[in-house]
Structures are given as structure tokens and as C-alpha cells.
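Sequence, please.
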């Protein structure tokens, strides 16, 4: 009872009492909302706030989706559009517009090491697609504290797709450009190649960078838009013929190397130039290191009896001799402990044409002695044979010559021993002998005849050039150039068989053979020079230039003359027609 009495007392003291349906009424008659209704209201308010939050959240997501849907497309795990790639390089084209080098889009694989959880697992998965990766090197990269590491540059689309399918977190792809050379090794030493960062390393690729592209790239001012293509003077059709001839003769003669050039005698344009062995610019490191050397412009050699062409031109240009002059070649010349004798000795007086025809060392030595040491050196310098050649190609070697010219040096140089020069500048000097007497520095870019005239330097008299054309024609018909004759194209030239220096001494069993030619010799349009290094016969004996370098020129001219636009002429006066039955 005590408990119930106490409750009743407290209730009587209250200012309100509970009414019907849970509503409490105060003493002054005011209705007060009950606890149940208040809680219901609070619940509705909270539900409304939660709904508003969800609506706002999904509005934000929807807005971002609309934003991403209308902004410029951006791909993060595949190849980006062209305008978002690294800066472009200009296409390189031959003189007829054929593509020699161009950019293609590719991607490279990178990692963000701070996002990598298990480097071993990443390596294990990557080896499924890239089995040749260096696991130790990749592990070091993935375990580093850096935020970016290259894993593999320039992947194929298939490799990228397979890696994406692996779903590896912490790795990604960066779009890049890769240089592609459709012709492979065909014009490798002329076109050159680029490094992994698309920067020119050799050939005309390096020349393009030297013209300002590399400097702009260094300061971030290059464009990612296609650039104006660079046209070369090269004719890829003639280039392919030249290279094929070189490669086949290296195999035939088991030679160490070979080279050749086809040069426009009147403009200095290089129509084709090749050095073998060579390399594939798409994978420069994949071949033999011997292929990296451009023997035509960056290798120096004693050019042998081809130098007799310059000795005879020098003698004729001085006016001290003419085509009717004779030289006593009956006895060897002894000087400074050396004996100078003829390989094809006739043991008699030789006329000027016979000195050329029989390649007389004695005869050319006496011409050099007649001109004198200073005059001899000055003439070869004038022809550009003793100084570094100027051209666009970066790989150009400095010729070598005696530090002090003595009489013995002048005599040996007269027949091609004692001075080492590049085959390309030998061809350029040869062009000056037959094009009217003008030295025109070679170019790998298109050049008009007017432009060539502007840079041409007269080095010999026109009459001397006329006489040299006659001598080349004479030797092509009666001398060592017979194996280079092509019916209808009137080829003239001069062979050169130089003994190689082995262990400091000239070795007669190992030769460097060359042939300098021009056609059609009555009005030369093109100069062709070939060389072959240490050719061997089937019995492993040395082979002379007349049987190796000269036939190479014949094959090149036979297959390319029509491509170059030279019309064949038959008969004594060239008026006969070739009739097919």
C-alpha cells in the first residue's frame, strides 16, 4: 500500500494528466504533443535528409558523367589520339615520293612502384607476355621508392592487349611514337636511324635534328602535328639495285665489305649510295657492329689506280703534256730504297693513253715528278681529295695524307698509295673530271642545275675534261674497263687495285678493288663508283678490280640506266635502233 499511496500523491501534484489517445493536458488546459508523435516526426525528418543526401550524391555523379562524356576523349590504358602524342618527326621521302621513314603510334609500359603490393607477382604475370624481361632489373624498379619507372618501351598492340588482360594494378601505358623504315636496310646508311626517344642518331635523321628540330625539342617547342616531309635525292629503285649488287658480290667473292654510289655528274645529287654489310634501322642493335660503319663516306681507303685519273688530269691541266706525249716505262724507278714497277709492264715507251690503258705506275710517277710536289698537293686539294668533304650526311671522315710530302710520297700518291680518302669524295672528284671541270659538293637533297651552278667550283680546264672523257672511253674499250661495258650506254672508267696494308706492310695477296666510271661517256650524266674489300676467288686467291669491281658497275648500269632516264644508243653514230624479233 505504501508504494501505491506514494504514486497517487505524486500524480496529484503533477501539472498535467494523461488524456485520451496519449495526449497530455496541462492544468491550464493546453494540449502538449506526446512522445510518440515527436519521435515519428524526427524519423520523417531524418529520412528526408538521407533521401536528399542520396539525391545530391547521384546528381554529382551524373554531372561528372555528363562532363566526362562531353570533354575531349582521353585514353589512359591504350594509344592516345595523334594530337596527344609526343612531338612528330617529318616523314623522309625519296625523290619520287616513296616513304623511307615515318612515325607510327605505339605505347610503352611503365610502373608506379608506390602502388605495387607484390613485385614478384607482377614479374610473374609480365613474363607471361614478355618472357625476355630481366627479372632482377624489373624487381629493383618495382621495389624502388620512386613514383615512375619504365618497364618496356614501344610495345606491339598485341603485347599491350595481353598485358591489359592480366589486370595488374600499378602499371600503365604511355603513348609514344616509333620511327618505322619501310625499306628496312635498303638505304640504312643514308636515312640513318633514331634512338628510343625518337631523336636522330645517324644519317639524314641526325641531319634533320641538326637543322633545329633537336633544339626545339629540348625546350619543349616541338609540334605534335604532322610536319612537312623531307625529300631526299635518293631514288629508292636505284638504291635497291645498288644494294642488291653489293650484297650478292660480297657473297660471291667472300669479301669483307663493299660499297657503291650513283651520282648525278652535273648536279652532285646522290641517286643511290650503299655500304655493305649494313643494318636494319628498325632494329640497329640487332645486327653485326660491322654494319654500322658507312664505308662510303666515313671510311677512308687507298683508292689505288683510280687515282691515276687525277694524276693524268693534273698533268694535262698544267699544259706540260698532251694526249700525244710519251713516257719511258722500260725501267723501274728506284727511290729511297723502294722500287716502282708496273704490274702490267710493257717494257717500252708508252703514250699518254697507253699509260692509262696499262695502268702504268712508272708513267704516272713521271707525270707527278714533272708537275712537282707542291703542284701535286695543290691539285689534289683543289679536287677536294685531301680535305673533309662537305655534305648533309653527318658521317664524313677526314682523309689522311703524309705529314710532310716528299718526292717518294708524291710518286706513290700518283698511283693511289700514300693517301687515304673516302670513296664518295673520290666519285665527286671523278665527276669534276668529266662534267666540264666543275667540282660540285655532293648532296642528299634535291638540287636543280641552276642551284648546282651556283655552288660549282671550276677546278680544271674544259679542254682537260674533254681529254679525260676521251681517256675514260679509251680505257673502257681497250683497257681494264672492258668488263663494265653495257651495250648501248657507252661506259668509260678506270679500275683501281690497291694492296692492303697488313701488319704495317703492303700485302699483294689482299686487295682493295675499286672502279670509277661515268656514262654515257660522250656526255656524262652519271658517275658510278664501286669498291669491294679483299675479294677472294674460289681457290682463295686475290681477285683484281677488273674482274670484281668493274662487273659490279656493269650490273648496276644495266639495271638502272633506264630508270634514270638514259636512252641507249646503238651503232657508230648512235642512230641505229634496237629491233626485237
Amino acid at each position: 500500500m505504501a508504494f501505491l499511496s506514494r504514486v497517487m500523491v505524486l500524480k496529484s501534484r503533477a501539472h498535467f494528466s494523461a488524456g485520451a489517445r496519449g495526449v497530455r493536458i496541462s492544468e491550464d488546459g493546453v494540449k502538449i504533443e506526446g512522445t510518440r508523435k515527436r519521435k515519428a516526426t524526427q524519423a520523417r525528418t531524418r529520412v528526408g535528409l538521407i533521401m536528399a543526401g542520396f539525391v545530391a550524391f547521384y546528381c554529382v555523379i551524373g554531372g561528372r558523367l555528363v562532363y566526362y562524356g562531353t570533354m575531349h576523349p582521353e585514353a589512359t590504358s591504350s594509344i592516345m589520339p595523334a594530337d596527344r602524342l609526343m612531338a612528330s618527326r617529318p616523314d623522309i621521302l625519296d625523290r619520287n615520293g616513296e616513304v623511307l621513314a615515318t612515325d607510327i603510334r605505339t605505347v610503352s609500359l611503365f610502373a608506379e612502384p608506390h602502388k605495387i603490393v607484390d613485385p614478384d607477382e607482377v614479374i610473374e604475370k609480365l613474363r607471361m607476355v614478355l618472357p625476355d624481361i630481366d627479372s632482377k632489373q624489373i624487381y629493383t624498379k618495382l621495389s624502388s621508392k620512386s613514383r615512375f619507372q619504365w618497364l618496356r618501351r614501344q610495345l606491339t598492340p598485341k603485347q599491350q592487349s595481353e598485358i591489359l588482360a592480366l589486370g595488374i594494378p600499378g602499371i600503365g601505358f604511355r603513348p609514344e611514337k616509333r620511327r618505322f623504315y619501310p625499306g628496312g636496310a635498303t638505304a640504312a646508311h643514308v636515312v640513318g636511324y633514331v634512338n628510343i626517344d625518337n631523336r636522330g642518331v645517324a644519317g639524314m635523321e641526325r641531319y634533320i635534328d641538326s637543322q633545329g628540330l633537336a633544339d626545339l625539342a629540348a625546350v619543349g617547342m616541338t609540334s605534335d602535328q604532322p610536319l612537312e616531309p623531307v625529300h631526299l635525292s635518293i631514288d629508292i629503285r636505284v638504291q635497291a639495285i645498288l644494294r642488291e649488287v653489293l650484297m650478292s658480290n660480297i657473297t660471291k667473292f667472300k669479301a669483307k665489305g663493299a660499297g657503291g654510289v650513283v651520282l648525278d655528274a652535273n648536279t652532285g645529287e646522290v641517286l643511290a649510295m650503299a655500304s655493305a654489310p649494313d643494318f636494319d634501322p628498325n632494329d640497329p642493335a640487332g645486327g653485326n657492329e660491322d654494319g654500322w660503319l658507312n664505308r662510303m663516306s666515313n671510311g677512308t681507303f687507298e683508292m689505288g689506280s683510280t687515282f691515276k685519273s687525277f694524276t693524268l688530269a693534273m698533268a694535262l691541266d698544267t699544259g706540260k703534256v698532251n694526249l700525244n706525249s710519251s713516257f719511258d716505262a722500260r725501267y723501274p724507278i728506284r727511290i729511297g730504297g723502294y722500287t716502282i714497277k708496273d704490274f702490267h709492264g710493257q717494257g717500252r715507251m708508252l703514250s699518254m693513253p697507253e699509260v692509262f690503258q696499262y695502268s702504268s705506275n712508272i708513267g704516272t710517277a713521271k707525270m707527278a715528278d714533272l708537275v712537282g710536289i707542291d703542284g701535286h698537293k695543290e691539285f689534289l686539294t683543289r679536287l677536294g681529295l685531301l680535305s673533309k668533304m662537305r655534305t648533309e650526311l653527318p658521317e664524313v671522315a677526314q682523309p689522311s695524307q703524309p705529314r710532310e710530302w716528299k718526292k717518294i710520297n708524291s710518286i706513290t700518291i700518283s698511283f693511289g698509295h700514300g693517301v687515304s680518302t673516302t670513296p664518295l669524295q673520290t666519285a665527286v672528284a671523278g665527276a669534276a673530271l668529266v662534267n666540264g671541270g666543275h667540282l660540285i659538293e655532293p648532296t642528299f637533297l634535291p638540287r636543280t642545275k641552276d642551284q648546282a651552278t651556283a655552288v660549282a667550283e671550276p677546278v680544271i680546264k674544259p679542254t682537260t675534261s674533254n681529254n679525260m672523257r676521251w681517256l675514260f672511253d679509251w680505257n673502257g674499250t681497250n683497257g681494264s674497263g672492258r668488263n663494265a661495258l653495257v651495250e648501248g650506254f657507252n661506259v668509260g672508267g678506270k679500275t683501281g687495285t690497291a694492296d692492303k696494308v697488313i701488319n704495317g706492310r703492303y700485302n699483294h695477296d689482299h686487295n682493295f678493288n675499286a672502279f670509277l666510271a661515268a656514262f654515257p661517256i660522250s656526255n656524262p650524266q652519271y658517275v658510278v663508283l664501286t669498291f669491294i674489300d679483299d675479294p677472294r676467288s674460289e681457290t682463295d686467291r686475290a681477285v683484281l678490280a677488273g674482274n670484281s669491281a668493274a662487273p659490279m658497275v656493269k650490273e648496276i648500269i644495266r639495271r638502272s640506266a633506264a630508270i634514270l632516264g638514259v636512252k641507249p644508243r646503238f651503232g657508230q653514230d648512235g642512230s641505229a635502233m634496237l629491233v626485237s624479233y
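Residues 35-70 form the longest helix (36 residues).
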